[in-house]
Specification:
This protein is 46% helix and 5% strand. By secondary structure, it is mainly alpha-helical. A three-stranded antiparallel beta sheet has the order 1-2-3.
Amino acid sequence: MDGMGARALEICVLHANRTSEVLGEKWDEIDLNARIWSIPAIRMKKKIAHTIPLTEQAVELLSTLNEHKISDYVFPNISNGKHLSQAGMSSVLKRMQKIDSWKDELGRNISTLGFRTKFRTYIANETAFNGEIAEFALSHKLKDKAQAAYQQGNLLSKRKVMMQRYSDYAYGEPEKKVIQLRVHASI
């Protein structure tokens, strides 16, 4: 699908983000050369800054968007000068539902939250990555208090490898895709 809502959804899928993290994304949070997205604490659910390693696919997409930048926001709402609203991504999913009924394994309509679930399930079931690394990628706090007390790093280098593997999976063979991502869609 074309449009900013579709591109926002794509970033959401590639990095297993919360919708609000993607919609509020600003260009000053992105370092395309270092391949890092640094979300400030004020924009995070747990009010803890979160650093995301950008995948090759995300860098390509963001580089294209950056060439056409019209706002401080990566996904701007042209009508009001702010960022795209929640409806921007949900309308894309609704349009996709009309084209082909998307259901998860339990028969529920696909949602942005469902992509986070799919990420976590894929990492657990299809890879050897430690669940702790996946929890960091989802910006969840570790449930084991002792483990959380001793874990002082952000596992960035390991998350970089994991997120690239997941992005490759998302763009992979049609029968194995998380979502049928664009091949050459216009912005």
